[in-house]
Design a protein that fits this description.
Length: about 120
């Protein structure tokens, strides 16, 4: 009886070892694309989130080499979100700059019309 229990426990433990996380290669690819896209819209080292994303991507790649796939996935997901936030901040700032420029033009036109 104890022998059957031991065999069942060992079988259960060996099966749980096989259920480890798969390598997050697709997530790493998505993260790299998000970083490239953020840089393409103008994010640079001045945007804090971009630096954080790059650091987390390096950590994720290091975790991949150690085969710590769960850690790599979490870091890659965080890096992707940081990169997307960096992109959004840059695009928001560009939109705000354009809005300010349009408001300046409107004010100049109003002044010109008022002088007539």
């Amino acid at each position: 009886m104890i022998n059957r229990f031991s065999c069942a426990a060992m079988l259960l433990l060996s099966l749980s070892g096989c259920a480890s996380d798969p390598a997050p290669t697709e997530q790493l690819r998505l993260t790299e694309q998000a970083l490239a896209q953020a840089k393409a819209v103008g994010a640079d080292e001045q945007v804090a989130e971009l630096g954080m994303a790059e650091d987390k991507l390096l950590q994720a790649q290091s975790a991949m080499r150690r085969e710590a796939f769960k850690e790599a996935r979490v870091l890659a997901e965080q890096a992707e979100l940081d990169a997307r936030l960096a992109e959004a901040r840059v695009l928001t700032q560009k939109s705000q700059d354009q809005l300010n420029e349009l408001n300046n033009r409107i004010n100049r036109l109003r002044k010109q019309l008022g002088e007539l």
